[in-house]
Design a protein that fits this description.
The complex is a heterodimer of chains A (338) and B (329).
Chain A: H1 2-30, H2 34-39, H3 45-54, H4 61-73, H5 87-122, H6 127-141, H7 144-158, H8 181-187, H9 191-228, H10 231-238, H11 243-271, H12 275-280, H13 286-295, H14 299-327
Chain B: E1 3-14, E2 17-29, E3 34-38, H1 45-53, E4 60-69, E5 72-73, H2 79-85, E6 90-93, H3 107-118, H4 123-136, H5 142-145, H6 155-167, E7 173-177, H7 185-202, E8 205-210, H8 213-219, E9 222-227, E10 230-236, H9 237-242, H10 247-254, E11 304-307, E12 310-313
Parallel strand pairs in B: 3-8, 3-9, 6-7, 7-8
Antiparallel strand pairs in B: 1-2, 1-4, 4-5, 9-10, 10-12, 11-12
Helix pairs in contact in B: 3-4, 3-6, 4-6, 6-7
Classes of the chains: A mainly alpha (338), B alpha/beta (329).
């Protein structure tokens, strides 16, 4: 198992080289020249040239890439053209917001998705099943930003129950230790900040979770329906154990194995930042920020963020595969010849 | 008498109509007896077993009749009450040993679950009993193999594990639904031998469901032949093989290849196909395949009657028929 994990981590290297080359080239081919955007349209030819020279944009592309990748290896992702801050700092300032939102969303989505999916499968064709599948259908079809706006209008605008934007009331902001406000507020022992963080999370997490939940619900339902038809479920019933135990102990564990993959993939994409959700809820996360940087041709930031997201995506998949081996004894990675 | 099935009918309500998979069958099983039910696929033999176990899945349901187990009608019990009997007093092994065990559970946990559901024993005692049962059914080094997962075992081994699980609570009746069908011939013999040995050791009755007359001749005490959900013949095993009465039974026996048969004639085959269960013929369901079909066969259903110690459902043996002429040969 350990060998397998090491091998997979080593395989990360070619993935990252490939991703970095692609994003590097795309930015340089398709993005407008950053110099006039940074310096303004009235900048002189001389100033523009000097700025390009200073930022290494006059070097041949392969040299630019070489400089970027050697820097990245030592942890230096460059500095933003606009804020002049190190890219790593820029990322650290925003990424925890994205992770916090993504994790809360995926927990919500998994909990309700699996719950509804299992009940729908067990009570197939019942009223509950039909309602559950209708919700799932709405969930996959409804655009997240629109759902977000509806949620804001109802819960924030009309009912005034929940805040509609930002991560926390600025007056309550805890000292940044991890960047996760839920954790930071607990470290500071500030329960007001903690509740406020949770309140700010409810609407964006719900909007973001809806799509994933719908996917998980449908996958769980079909996987459970398949599992409940298996011979070993009949064997379990023939043992004389209760139907509840048959479902919880025998069907669920088998039925959830494929769901783990789905949840992993969904989490991976959520961690890449939810651009629309972040925009609608003014969530200071990495997604909306990256889009702005792409539009402004802030090369170092875009490259850094994409590298990071690719790494996380691969790691999440690795974790899913490891969980797989624990759930399904038939999978033994150590025997896989690489 | 351990079990008496009276006029049991089981139906499947489908969109295109209702299929009566088991149609008004009655039989008894004595304690310690091996009763075989023989028939083709679709003859209703497995549905009979599932009806007894209360394991019919939608859209199947028992349409009528009684299943008296120790004078208690299983059909009248709630699922909760049935659960106390299932796996405990009546247990079952299935046709597909490869898929009948839960792939993500260790062997020992699957057997222990059965024991701990029905017996008031500690985890430790349950494990000890599990290993003892695995040893009894002939699993080598049972203490170690108990930790295996199903995929680490062969089909024959898995059927042994299924048997150990089914026998772990010392049932009075073991229902074996085609226990050897999915196994290769040498392993088939081993599993049959195992069932036989277990019957000797534990004294339980066995309801053996099979399409394989070879299996029947080796293992059973008494045989029921089913066709299209009906019992067409019932007899003890020796007399059935020596003197089959119903043309269907005769056909089944004739279509077994004989190793000492030196003639060049092709193997006998029952002509035609099993009728569509949604469009059953009005009379005897076998009438349109029968070599000795009479005029009335396609008009009315013969009754199951006693003929020379057999029970047979055929007009050929209708000694006192309504027309007054004897057709017995």
């Amino acid at each position: 198992m350990l060998n397998y994990i090491l091998k997979r981590i080593l395989m990360l290297i070619p993935v990252l080289i490939g991703v970095s080359i692609i994003v590097f080239l795309i930015m340089r081919v398709f993005s407008p020249d950053p110099a006039p955007i940074v310096l303004g349209q009235h900048a002189t030819q001389l100033a523009t040239e000097a700025w390009r020279q200073a930022n290494g944009l006059n070097d041949p592309v392969y040299l630019q890439y070489f400089n970027f990748i050697t820097g990245a290896l030592t942890g230096d992702l460059g500095t933003s053209y606009y804020t002049k801050m190190p890219v790593s700092k820029e990322i650290f300032a925003r990424f925890p917001a994205t992770i916090e939102l993504a994790l809360v969303a995926i927990v919500l989505a998994s909990f309700f998705g699996i719950l509804i999916g299992v009940i729908s499968a067990v009570k197939k064709n019942s009223i509950f099943d039909n309602i559950g599948m209708l919700i799932a259908l709405i969930g996959v079809s409804m655009p997240i930003f629109w759902l977000g706006i509806l949620l804001i209008i109802l819960f924030s605008g009309t009912l005034h129950w929940l805040p509609s934007n930002g991560r926390i009331d600025p007056m309550l902001q805890p000292v940044a230790v991890t960047g996760f406000y839920m954790i930071d507020s607990l470290i500071a022992g500030d329960m007001d900040a903690f509740t406020d963080t949770l309140q700010h999370l409810v609407l964006p997490a719900t909007a973001l979770a809806m799509y994933s939940m719908a996917i998980i619900t449908r996958m769980t339902r079909s996987s459970m329906l398949d599992t409940l038809q298996q011979d070993y479920i009949r064997t379990a019933r023939a043992k004389g154990i209760s139907e509840g135990r048959v479902i919880r102990k025998h069907a669920l564990r088998n039925g959830l194995i494929p769901i783990v993959t789905v949840i992993g993939l969904l989490l991976g994409s959520l961690l890449g930042g939810a651009v629309l959700t972040e925009t609608v809820f003014s969530w200071p996360g990495i997604g909306a920020y990256t889009v702005t940087c792409i539009l402004k041709s802030d090369f170092p930031v875009v490259q850094g963020v994409v590298l990071l997201i690719a790494t996380i995506f691969v790691m999440v998949n690795l974790i899913v595969d490891v969980i797989y081996a624990f759930l399904d004894p038939r999978i033994k990675y150590s025997k896989v010849k690489g | 008498m351990l079990m008496e099935v009276k006029a049991l009918s089981t139906e499947f309500k489908l969109k295109r109509g209702t299929v009566r998979a088991v149609d008004d069958i009655s039989f008894t099983i004595d304690e310690g007896e091996i009763l075989a039910i023989v028939g083709e696929s679709g003859s209703g033999k497995s549905v009979t077993a599932l009806s007894i176990m209360g394991l019919l899945q939608n859209p199947g349901r028992i349409a009528g009749g009684e299943i008296l187990f120790k004078s208690q009608d299983l059909n009248k019990l709630s699922q909760k009450e049935l659960q106390k009997i299932r796996g405990n007093r009546i247990s079952m092994i299935f046709q597909e040993p490869m898929t009948s065990l839960n792939p993500v559970w260790r062997i020992k946990d699957q057997i222990m679950e059965s024991i701990m559901t029905h017996m008031k024993v500690s985890q430790k005692e349950a494990l000890a009993r599990t290993i003892e049962m695995l040893d009894t059914v002939g699993i080598p080094s049972p203490a170690e193999r108990a930790n295996d997962y199903p995929h680490q075992m062969s089909g024959g081994m898995r059927q042994r594990v299924m048997t150990a699980m089914a026998l772990s609570c010392g049932p009075d009746l073991l229902i074996a639904d085609e226990p050897t069908t999915a196994l290769d011939v040498t392993i088939q013999a081993q599993i049959l031998e195992l069932l036989y040995r277990m019957r000797e050791k534990f004294g339980m009755a066995v309801l053996l469901i099979t399409h394989d007359l070879g299996v029947v001749s080796e293992a059973a005490d008494r045989v029921i032949v089913m066709y299209c959900g009906k019992i067409v013949e019932e007899a003890d095993v020796k007399s059935l093989f020596a003197r089959p009465l119903h043309p269907y039974t005769v056909g089944l026996l004739q279509s077994i290849p004989q190793i000492d048969d030196e003639s060049d004639e092709p193997l006998y085959m029952i002509k035609g196909m099993v009728p569509n269960p949604l469009r059953m013929p009005r009379g005897c369901p076998f009438s349109d395949r029968c070599d000795r079909c009479l005029e009335r066969c396609s008009q009315e259903m013969p009754k199951l009657q006693d003929v020379d110690g057999h029970k047979v459902r055929c007009f050929l043996y209708d000694v006192v028929s309504e027309g007054g002429h004897a057709q017995n040969e």
